[in-house]
Write a structure and sequence with these properties.
Helix content: over 70%
Number of strands: 0
Keywords: Coiled coil
Mean pLDDT: 68
Low-confidence stretches: 143-150, 189-195
Order of helices and strands: HHHH
Radius of gyration: 61 Å
Shape: rod-shaped
Structural class: mainly alpha
Distance between the termini: 119 Å
Length: 256
């Protein structure tokens, strides 16, 4: 009986010893598994970090390439703009003398026209005065004496004829003054030969003097029109020069 007990006790001790060994083995395996898992996690984390770094490097390289391409495009655009500006400047420099020559020719033509018109105006005034004097002299030398009533009638007829053709207040005043002068002349010298002709000549002078303001008005209107045209052309020249200067300044700014 004692032998069985000792065997049982020995078996129990063995079983406990085996159980302890099993527990130790399980703990050892568990620890190894944990270590392997940590190692795997570390390896996986390192791989992810490396991949992320590679992606960042690739993105940076792409950004650098894009920046380089943009810079190249900007430089190309600037070179094209400079070429266009240089061509425009060359064209303007070639065209500017032609424009100046055309403007100078127009100014010379206008000045010549004004001088011609002034000469014509002076000639017309001198011609009217000469014609009136000739009429007065011819009529005074070729006519005969008559009564004072005839003189009044001829002067009145001449005044009526001249007043019918007048259109302005100045002309009417000049004709009335001429009639008064003729009346005074006929009353002051009733027996002088050529009194009627002198009155008619005075009326003719008045009519010629009344016609002169119309011609002067026309000439003044023409001169005003020419002056306005000259002013418009000068303004156009100034605007062209201002536009050219502005264009040159803008082009220089773009080049800079």
């Amino acid at each position: 009986m004692s032998g069985l007990k000792t065997q049982q006790q020995g078996d129990e001790v063995l079983q406990q010893h085996l159980h302890e060994q099993q527990q130790q083995l399980q703990q050892h395996l568990h620890e190894q598994q944990q270590q392997q898992g940590e190692c795997e996690l570390d390896v996986f984390g390192e791989q992810q970090q490396q991949q992320q770094q590679q992606l960042q490097q690739q993105q940076q390289q792409q950004q650098q390439l894009q920046q380089q391409q943009q810079q190249q495009q900007q430089q190309h655009c600037l070179s094209l703009k400079r070429a266009i500006v240089l061509l425009q400047l060359h064209y303007l420099l070639q065209q500017q003398p032609l424009l100046l020559l055309l403007l100078q020719e127009q100014q010379q033509q206008q000045q010549q026209q004004q001088q011609q018109q002034l000469l014509l105006q002076r000639g017309c005034d001198d011609g009217l005065q000469a014609d009136a004097a000739a009429l007065y002299n011819d009529s005074a030398s070729s006519s005969s004496s008559s009564s004072s009533s005839d003189r009044h009638q001829t002067a009145a007829v001449a005044a009526d004829n001249s007043s019918s053709s007048r259109q302005q207040q100045q002309q009417q005043q000049q004709a009335a003054a001429a009639v008064q002068q003729a009346d005074v002349y006929t009353h002051s010298q009733p027996q002088e030969s050529g009194g009627v002709a002198a009155a008619a000549a005075a009326a003719a002078v008045a009519a010629a003097a009344a016609a002169k303001p119309q011609q002067r008005q026309l000439q003044q209107q023409q001169l005003l029109q020419q002056q306005q045209q000259m002013q418009q052309q000068q303004q156009q020249q100034q605007t062209l020069q201002q536009q050219q200067t502005l264009q040159q300044q803008q082009q220089q700014q773009t080049l800079q």
